[in-house]
Each structure stands twice: as C-alpha cells, then as structure tokens.
Specification:
Length: about 375
Amino acid sequence: MTVSKQKLRQRIEAEAQALGFAAIGFARADAAPRTAERLREWLASGAHGDMIWMEETAQRRGSPAGLWPDVRSVISLGMSYAPAVDPLALAGEREVGRISVYAQGADYHDTVKKALKALARWLVAEAGCELKVFVDTAPVMEKPLAEAAGLGWQGKHTNLVSRTDGSWLFLGAIYTSLELGGEIEPSEPHPVHCGSCSACLDACPTGAFPAPFRLDARRCISYLTIEHKGPIPHEFREAIGNRIYGCDDCLAVCPWNRFADTARRNQAFVPRAELVAPALADLLALDDAGFRQVFAGSPIKRIGRGRMVRNAAIAAGNSGSAALVEPLRKLVGDEDPVVDEAAQWALSKLFSPAFAGEGDHAKHGGGTF
C-alpha cells in the first residue's frame, strides 16, 4: 500500500537514514540557476587543467534538465565520512604517505551508489515516479544542488560545508519526475556561514585559491596527485610534502568541523589500517599486481600504479630519509617514464650533485648520512 502524499517526505527521509545517509534535502530542478554560468566562467579560465571531460559535458552538467529533460525535482543526499583523528596529524612523518581521509575506507562510489539505488527502488514503489541516480561519475553539479536543497553551503574552498557534518559528506543525487509542492515541500536553500573566516584559503600549501569561492585545480594537490597524469610541475613538488593521494588541508582547518560527529559516519568509511599511514618504501616497491592487491575496493585503484608510485617518489624526495634511497634507485629506468623522472628528481633532492649513486653516504641538509 502506498503512503499518503502528506507523509511521503518524512518516509523518504526515514528510509534514507536507514540506508546510511546522514543528510537529505529536496530542491526543484531549477533551484541553482547560476550553476551553468559559473561553470562556463571556470572552464573559460582554464582552471580545470586537463580534466577535459568537464568541457565535454559542460552543457549537460550545467543544469539537471540539461542531463535529463524530464527531471522536475532533485533529492540531494549526503553520507558522512567524518574522521576520528586529525587529518593533519601525519604532516611531520617523513617516511609515510598521507592519503586523503575520503579514500582510506571503502570506495564511496560503490557504497553511495548502492544506497541510492535502494532508495530509488523504494521511492518508485511508493510514489510511482521516474528517476535517475548519480554519484560523482555523471555530469552532475552535486555541490550547488546540495546547497539549494539545504544540506550545507559551498565554502570559500568551494567544497560543501554542513553545520552538522562539517566538511565530510559524500554527495549523491536522485533526479525525479516528482513535482515538489503538496506531497513534498522543497527545502530552504542553505545560507553561507563562512563570515570573515579565511582558514581554508590560508591553509592551502600551493595557493590554489585565487579568490574566495574560486579554485584553480591546476594548483590543487588533490588534482595534481589524482587527476593529473603527467609529471607534477616542479614548482609544487616541495609543497606536496608527504601527500600521496589527495589533500585535506583546506577541509581539515574549517571551524565547522567541530560539530562533525563520527557517530554519524557510515561504517563503510572506517579507515583501513593499511591506508592510514602507508610506508613510502612499500609504495615505491609496488608493481601492477601489488598495486591492485593493496588498493582493491578503494577509490585509489582508479589512478593506477604509475601515478601512485610517482606520488610516493615525490614524497620520498621531500622526506630527507636515506632509507628511501635504495627503493628510489630501483625506479630509475622504470618502464613508466613519469615514474622514472620522479625517482630521478627525488634522488637529486635527497643528495647533493656530487653524489652520483656511487657511494653509501651523502651530504644532505648540512649533515652526513
């Protein structure tokens, strides 16, 4: 028996919570009208780097109707991955790599998509509507839609900020043919609560924010370590430090995170022990099979062995650790030229020009090891 229209919104919210979502909101399909214009401006500036698919899907990405003309409303959902420890805690650890909090647990694409599909099946049975579900991989602007649906606001770092979940929400969306109104009232759009705070902008190691609410992906460590396929520009290598997959700095310093409760975190995103502080030496030694084994079930698997070892080599070059010399030497001449170049850079960074790989000691930083 279908639910009454008056109770449909409450039932949807309860079902979403039961499926592991921490936040849900409802918006008309045209509730974020400036999205397409802002996207065009961003793309025109070249700030998307070599994420060419952003250009190729711009028309469909600019509005829900551009992707599906029959959409009438959007259900925006958030799943918490709030960390239990400070994401910046490993900043000074020389011989381990730092992986962004979101990638330390299960692959969010799989977890969120599974829950979205379950909610969609329930909603079709209850309301008889048409719908489509999306999480990250489709040309959907989840953040402005989530803001319009009241989940939070896009902060000065351009990511969503929630008063209850801080900066730690995976976003998904359900496009539906339901008309908002009598049976489902739309949520109130969320106001911006950043005020005069600039903590996220000030924390960025590479100056990736040319202005508040604007991101230049070409300078962003997350982009450089995940999306960028070639050699990482030299001007950013030292600033990368020991980050080997993503960067949490602008998110971690947001004052609203003090309200984020790890009890609301979906258990799928509890960090895997081997991904919390992986040893750089182990990462440098990975071959393709080893990479697939270590990162099975993780979103990290999509970047492939080459990019991960490239990132680990740059972190090793920044480490000042003699223990990483031999693992780096073994990568010189690697079949992947990007890995080869990164290893050679790391060795040149660790040792003085006088060191040509012939001795067991090298002068570094005024000392000898």
